[in-house]
Amino acid sequence: ALHPRVPVGPICDFLGLRAPADAAAALGDWVVAESRRPPVVGDSVRLGSAVLVMREPEGDRIAGIVIGLQH
Fold first, then answer.
1. What pTM was computed for the model?
2. What values do phi and psi take at 61, rounded to 5?
3. How far apart, in whole angstroms, are the C-alpha atoms of residue 71 and residue 29?
4. Which of 8, 9, 35, 40 has the fewest CB atoms found within 10 Å of its own CB?
5. Distance (Å, rounded) from C-alpha 59 to C-alpha 67?
6. CA dist., res. 23 & res. 42, Å (int)
7. pLDDT level of residue 71 (50, 70, 90 thresholds)
8. What is the DSSP track for the chain?
9. Structure confidence at residue 32 (pLDDT)
10. What are the residues whose beta carbons fall under 8 Å from the beta carbon of 31, sequence distance 6 or more?
11. Rounded to whole angstroms, what are the CA distances from 1 to 4, 21, 31?
12. Higher pLDDT, 25 or 63
């Protein structure tokens, strides 16, 4: 799982995805903002052709995020 403090931009660069406007945001903060509610295990949000799935929430914060790529 990815650490939630990693910025979104470098992940997008690595995966060849278009970065969102707030690419400097921490991945965990970005996922929570996109889902518009506190995280729940299994919640997912799209980032281009990738799906980010929350795997390890701790209260209202995320401890781990898994990326799935769709073809």
1. 0.84
2. -120, 165
3. 26
4. 40
5. 21
6. 23
7. low
8. -B-TTSBHHHHHHHHT-PPPTTTTSBHHHHHHHHHTS---TT-EEEETTEEEEE--EETTEES-EEEEE--
9. 87
10. 4, 39, 45, 52, 54, 62, 65
11. 9, 24, 14
12. 25
Burial of 51 (0-12, 13-18, 19+ CB in 10 A): middle
Give me 28's structure tokens. Answer: 């965990």
Amino acid at 23: A
Question: Can you read off the two tokens belonging to residue 41?
Answer: 């295990």
The count of other CB atoms within 10 Å of the CB of residue 27 is 22
